[in-house]
Automatic annotation (TrEMBL):
<keyword id="KW-0100">Branched-chain amino acid biosynthesis</keyword>
<dbReference type="InterPro" id="IPR001544">
    <property type="entry name" value="Aminotrans_IV"/>
</dbReference>
<protein>
    <recommendedName>
        <fullName>Branched-chain-amino-acid aminotransferase</fullName>
        <ecNumber>2.6.1.42</ecNumber>
    </recommendedName>
</protein>
<comment type="similarity">
    <text>Belongs to the class-IV pyridoxal-phosphate-dependent aminotransferase family.</text>
</comment>
<dbReference type="InterPro" id="IPR036038">
    <property type="entry name" value="Aminotransferase-like"/>
</dbReference>
<dbReference type="InterPro" id="IPR043131">
    <property type="entry name" value="BCAT-like_N"/>
</dbReference>
<dbReference type="InterPro" id="IPR043132">
    <property type="entry name" value="BCAT-like_C"/>
</dbReference>
<dbReference type="InterPro" id="IPR005786">
    <property type="entry name" value="B_amino_transII"/>
</dbReference>
<comment type="pathway">
    <text>Amino-acid biosynthesis; L-valine biosynthesis; L-valine from pyruvate: step 4/4.</text>
</comment>
<keyword id="KW-0808">Transferase</keyword>
<dbReference type="GO" id="GO:0004084">
    <property type="term" value="F:branched-chain-amino-acid transaminase activity"/>
</dbReference>
<comment type="pathway">
    <text>Amino-acid biosynthesis; L-isoleucine biosynthesis; L-isoleucine from 2-oxobutanoate: step 4/4.</text>
</comment>
<dbReference type="InterPro" id="IPR018300">
    <property type="entry name" value="Aminotrans_IV_CS"/>
</dbReference>
<dbReference type="Pfam" id="PF01063">
    <property type="entry name" value="Aminotran_4"/>
</dbReference>
<keyword id="KW-0663">Pyridoxal phosphate</keyword>
<dbReference type="InterPro" id="IPR033939">
    <property type="entry name" value="BCAT_family"/>
</dbReference>
<keyword id="KW-0028">Amino-acid biosynthesis</keyword>
Length: 326
C-alpha cells in the first residue's frame, strides 16, 4: 500500500513474493527513513490460525512512524494487511508447538530526491516466512555480552522506535558478542554506562528469590516490547510484583552474588523467553548462574505465554486474534 501527501494511503494489493521497483535516489536508501514490526501467526491444535495482539504492533508502528517523520497508518489497515497476507499464505503456517509464520510489516520512505528532509511518499509492505523453534533440543540458558564500547541509541535518539538505524548500530556489537560466545549484546544507557536498557533484540527481566520481577522502565531509549508487556500482565495476574524502574548492572551483579536475584531472562517475539545463564564483558564473567537449568518462574511464564499463543491455555485477556477458522 502506497502513501503520498495528496491521496493518503491508497492502492493496497496482495502480490506474489518478488523484487520491488526502487529508484536509486529513493530517500530510504540514503537517510534510513524506515521502520518495521515483527509478529507471528500460529496454528492451533484444531487447525485455526491466529495472531497475537496485532493492534499492539500497529500502535507501536505508529509511534515509530511519528519519530521517523513517516505517515501514520490506520490500525485497521495494518490489521487488514496482516489478515489478508496470512489468509493467502495459510498453507505456510506450520503446525506444532514452537513453529509459526513470522510476519514482517515495514514502512519505507520512497520519494526520489537528494537532500535531507522527510519524504512525501511512503510504502507499507508485509512479508512472511515460516519460523521453526528458536531452540532446538530444549530451552537452554544463554550467555550475553555487556557492551562497554557501543551504545544502541542515545537520549533523545530513536531508541524507542523500531527503525532500521537502531539495528544498524547494533550489528557490530552483536558480532563482537558472538565472538565471545554470547547470544546477544546487552546495552546500557550511553550516559551512565551502568543503567541497563535492553538486549540487541529483546527486553530483560531479573527475578528475585521472593518472586519479584524487575525490568528496566520505558525510558525513551528502549523498545516497548509486546512480549515484555504481556509478561508483566501475566506475572501481575499471578499476584507477583513487577517493578518497572531503573536497573543497573551493579544491582544485578550484587543480587546474583548474594543469592537475592535467582533468575534472569530475555524476552521478545522471536524466542519468547530465553533464560540467561551468564553476563560477560571485557572484565570477564560478571554474573554466573552456574549450570542450573532454566529458572522455574522463567519457564512457567514461558509455558503460559506460549500456551496462550498456541491455543492450549485459555486466552483470558483477549490477546489472540483468529484469522482463519479450520
Ligand atoms: N527490544 C528490541 C531492540 C527488539 O528488537 C525487540 C524485538 N522486536 C524487543 C525488544 C522485543 O519486542 P517484542 O516483544 O515486541 O518482540
Amino acid at each position: 500500500i502506497v502513501w503520498d501527501r495528496e491521496q493518503g494511503w491508497h492502492d493496497a494489493e496482495v502480490l506474489p513474493y518478488g523484487p520491488i521497483p526502487m529508484d536509486p535516489a529513493s530517500s530510504v536508501l540514503h537517510y534510513g527513513q524506515e521502520i518495521f514490526e515483527g509478529l507471528k501467526a500460529y496454528r492451533h491444535p484444531n487447525g485455526d490460525i491466529v495472531t497475537f495482539r496485532p493492534e499492539a504492533n500497529a500502535q507501536r508502528l505508529n509511534e515509530s512512524a511519528a519519530r521517523l517523520a513517516l505517515p501514520e497508518l490506520p490500525v485497521e489497515l495494518f490489521v487488514q494487511a496482516i489478515r489478508e497476507l496470512v489468509t493467502v499464505d495459510a498453507d505456510w503456517v506450520p503446525s506444532g508447538h514452537d513453529q509459526s509464520l513470522y510476519l514482517r510489516p515495514f514502512m519505507i520512505a520512497d520519494e526520489s530526491f537528494l537532500g535531507v528532509r522527510a519524504a512525501e511518499r511512503a510504502r507499507f509492505m508485509v512479508i512472511a516466512s515460516p519460523a521453526g523453534p528458536y531452540f532446538t533440543g530444549g530451552v537452554k540458558p544463554v550467555s550475553i555480552w555487556l557492551s562497554g564500547e557501543h551504545a544502541r541509541a542515545g537520549r533523545g535518539g530513536t531508541g524507542a522506535a523500531k527503525c532500521g538505524g537502531n539495528y544498524a548500530s547494533s550489528l557490530l556489537p552483536t558480532r563482537i558478542a558472538a565472538q565471545h560466545g554470547c547470544a546477544q549484546v546487552l546495552f546500557t544507557d550511553s550516559a551512565t554506562e551502568d543503567t541497563i536498557d535492553e538486549l540487541g533484540g529483546m527486553n530483560l527481566f531479573l527475578v528475585h528469590r521472593d518472586g519479584r520481577l524487575v525490568t528496566p522502565e520505558l525510558n525513551g531509549n528502549i523498545l516497548d516490547g509486546i512480549t515484555r508487556k504481556s509478561l508483566i500482565r501475566l506475572a501481575q495476574d499471578r499476584g507477583l510484583t513487577v517493578e518497572e524502574r531503573k536497573v543497573t548492572v551493579g544491582e544485578w551483579r550484587a543480587g546474583a552474588a548474594d543469592g537475592s536475584i535467582t533468575e534472569a531472562f530475555a524476552c521478545g517475539t522471536a524466542a519468547v523467553i530465553t533464560p540467561i545463564g551468564q553476563l560477560k564483558s571485557e572484565q570477564g564473567v560478571l554474573v554466573d548462574f552456574g549450570d542450573r537449568a532454566p529458572g522455574e518462574l522463567t519457564m512457567s511464564l514461558r509455558d503460559e505465554l506460549t500456551g496462550i499463543q498456541f491455543g492450549t491455555v485459555a486466552d483470558r485477556f483477549g490477546w489472540v486474534e483468529r484469522i482463519v477458522t479450520a
